Amino acid sequence: MAFTCPHCEAIAYTRSSRMVTIKLREAYLQCSDLHCGHTFKTLEEVVCTLSPSAKPNPAVFLPRSAKVAGPPDERQLSLDVT
What we know:
Layout: E1 3-4, E2 11-21, E3 24-31, E4 39-45, H1 66-69
């Protein structure tokens, strides 16, 4: 994943990373502009589900995104067989 340098806005590349938790990754980045030379650390976190996994991990809870859930469609047929 490309990130931009907060100082000069050039592309910054990931030099190394490590998993902190199952949903959190810490990455060390370096600016590609030689005149800037900024190195920095970022945290990347999984925050919600957009499409559910076909192989869910029971140890991981991710709320469903509100944008994905949307209001129910009254035209949709019910799957109830009662």
